[in-house]
Structures are given as C-alpha cells and as structure tokens.
Amino acid sequence: MADTPDIRFKGFDGGWEQRKLGDTLCSLQNNTLSRSELTYEEGTIKNVHYGDVLVKYGEVIDVKNEQMPNIIDNTVVEKYKSSFLQNGDVIFADTAEDKTVGKCSEIAGLTDETILSGLHTIPYRPQLKFATGYLGYYFNSSIFHQQLIPLMQGIKVTSISKSAMQNTDIIYPKSVEEQEKIGTYFVHLDHLITLHQRKCDEMKQLKKFMLQKMFPKSGELIPEIRFVGFTGGWEQRKLGDVVGVYDGVHQTPEYQDAGIMFLSVENISTLKSEKFISKEAFERDYKVYPEKGDILMTRIGDVGTTNVIETDEKLAFYVSLALLKPNGIDPYFLSHVMKNHEFQKGLRERTLITAIPQKINKDEIGKVSVFITVNNDEQAKIGSYFRNLDHLITLHQSKCNQLKEVKRFMLQNMFPKKG
C-alpha cells in the first residue's frame, strides 16, 4: 500500500496501490527499423520511433490526430503480429542523449490502425484495467522518473534496459474513476497548452509575413500592404539621421541585490534582469541612459535584435547592447523597420563576421540605410499594429508557460511519493 498524493480530487480517499512494473505490465516486442525504413508518404503499418517519443509525442498519442510514419516494407511486419499495439499500451524511449531517457507515450484513439513500437523503444501492455491517460502521465512524472535515474547507463548516450525497468514500482489508485479524473485533467491541461502555443505560433507567422509586406522591398519605395489613406513613396535615410546611437559600459560592473536594473544581450526579449548596480555607479558611468520610448539593439551574437523601452524606471546596460534615441520618429515603427529583411541585410554587411561572437561597431550602426515613411500618422499606425501583435504573442506565450508550470507542479503532486 502506498501513501496518498498531496493533491487529490474530492470524494476519493484511501491509500494507493504500489506494485512492481514487471508484475503489472507485460513487455511486447519492438522492431529495429531506422528512419530510412519509414515514410510519411505511403504504407499502412504505423511505427513509433523513439526519437518521436522523446521530442514530438506527448504523454498520450491520439492515433487519429497525430502524424505518424509508416513502415515502407510491410513484409517485415509478419513476425511482429503478436505485438501490434492496442489502446492503453505504453512505449518508453530506452535511449537518449541526456536523462530524458525513459520518456513515455500511451496509445489512445486507436480503432482499426496497425501500429508497432520501433527502434530503441520498450513497449508494455497493462495486465490490469487502467483509465486512459493515467499511465502515460504517471510514467512521465518526476515521481516515477526519479526511479530511472540510478538505472541509467552510458556517458554520451544514455540508456536504460528492460530488465532494470522490471523492478521499478508503479503507484496507482484502486479506483479507475479516480485514475480517469487524473488522466482527463492532464489531457485538458495539454489541450490548453497546445491551444495557446498554436495561437502564439500563428501570431509569429503573421508578424513574419507582415514584416515582409508592410515595408518596401529592395529597389522599391512603396510597400505591398499599406493602411488605407496613405500614399506616396517612402524615403531612404541613414539610421544615424533619425536616431542617436550610444554605447553601454565596457566593463562588467559590480552587481548587487537591488538598485538600477542592468541589462545585457540576453535580456533583449524581455528587458528584464535580475542584475542590479548601485545608484552611485549608475550616475558615475551613464551620462546618456535608456528612457521610455528609446530602443535597445543587440550588438553581438544575434546582431540587430531590437526592443522598445516601455518603463519610466532608470536602466543601465552593457556594451553588448546599443542605445538608440529616436529623433522625431515613432520608436515602435522604427524598431520593426529594423526587423525587416532589408535593414537586417545592411546590418550584416557591416558586422564583423570574423569576430567570435559576431559584433558590430557602434559607429557602423548609424551608417546602415533604412527606408521610412515621413508621414508621422502612418508611422504611428504601423508601429501600433506591430506593438499590438507583439503583445498578443507575449500574452499567449506567457499563458503557455504558466500552464506548463502548472502541469509540472501537478505531475509532482498528484501522484504519491514511493512508499
């Protein structure tokens, strides 16, 4: 008898069962077909490859909705007939390049499809009745995975054997109804995560498309897509004509727990940091500093990534970033002009590609050509459009990350610790 979990659905009580995996599930045969022997183009026998379990598939594989590769040569399947997968079977990846070895997927939604477990997998069939999804999520919980860590072997490639897994323990509630509630809860959670991630990806694709269409292409002065009411050609300027370009500090400062936030290249996407410097150091080192409406741009590594400052708080920054102070131009418009392919191309031409990491000198930044509309209202509309798009992307990504954190927490607390 096992202990009960820290978090449990109302109406259920009593201890959970604890049994050896080898006494509760029987192993099936897997094939050793490589990727070259699989195809998405034709075939009738589906195959679960370990790489897909590790990277692509979730805890439950909905056979009807998941794209799965087929076996090219059906004649090799004859000897595996007794191991055709059924709903409720679970497949472990027995090899990985890290400790994700042991990741598991449960088969669900299968009707008349024929599926086999493939290369570097260990397929199992439950000998007891389990609700859909329970085993898939339990076997991927940290509660179970901690048992696998001491059983893993290898340095560059990590693996786990079927014989070692036989002696691990599985823990489950006697009530299939309770199992079903747990499985359904995590399935719904995954559905929400997928929903927000898909929406985020769609917004990113829309942004990519609009960056190509709402700014003029090389050799042209008018964009393909334009807000109604605006006409006339755009103008080519040097970036230095519309912004002032400034350096950050060249030496790593002395950090402290609070004070003036200190930004570096790794903070460009959020403009948030856990590093701070003193007010005294800030006043000593920064004659010009970032203010609301200014733009920060990466100068090393992924050169040319920009973000607009939206806070009134004082900020400090390292030399890996360049500070751009707009002069009579909408900052959100300019920030996205600088994300456009034509500007990025000009930036790369002035980047020191022989340096490791790549970098661009401050004085070169202002020499890059930029195409702009001189109509302030058009700038504002374009800037506002992309700003709202960025906020939607951030919103969906943030929600997705929050739900993933909820899932991680629940996987740790909705299953009891091993007794």
Brief summary of the model shown:
With 419 residues, the chain is α+β, with helices and mostly antiparallel strands.
Brief descriptors of the model:
419 residues; alpha+beta; 5-stranded mixed beta sheet; 4-stranded antiparallel beta sheet; 22 strands
Describe this structure in words.
This protein is α+β, with helices and mostly antiparallel strands and 419 residues long. Helix content is 32%, strand content 19%. The protein is built from 12 helices and 22 strands. It has helices spanning 21-24, 50-55, 134-138, 142-148, 162-166, 176-213, 239-242, 279-285, 331-337, 341-349, 362-365, 376-413; strands spanning 17-20, 25-27, 38-39, 45-48, 60-62, 70-71, 90-93, 95-96, 104-108, 114-117, 121-126, 158-159, 169-172, 235-238, 243-247, 260-263, 276-277, 295-298, 306-308, 315-317, 321-326, 369-372. The strands form 8 sheets. A 5-stranded mixed sheet has the order 2-11-7-9-5. A 4-stranded antiparallel sheet has the order 15-21-18-19. A hairpin with a 7-residue loop joins strand 18 (295-298) and strand 19 (306-308). Helix 6 (176-213) packs antiparallel against helix 12 (376-413) and helix 9 (331-337) crosses helix 12 (376-413). The chain is elongated, with a radius of gyration of 28 Å. The model has no long low-confidence stretch (mean pLDDT 93).
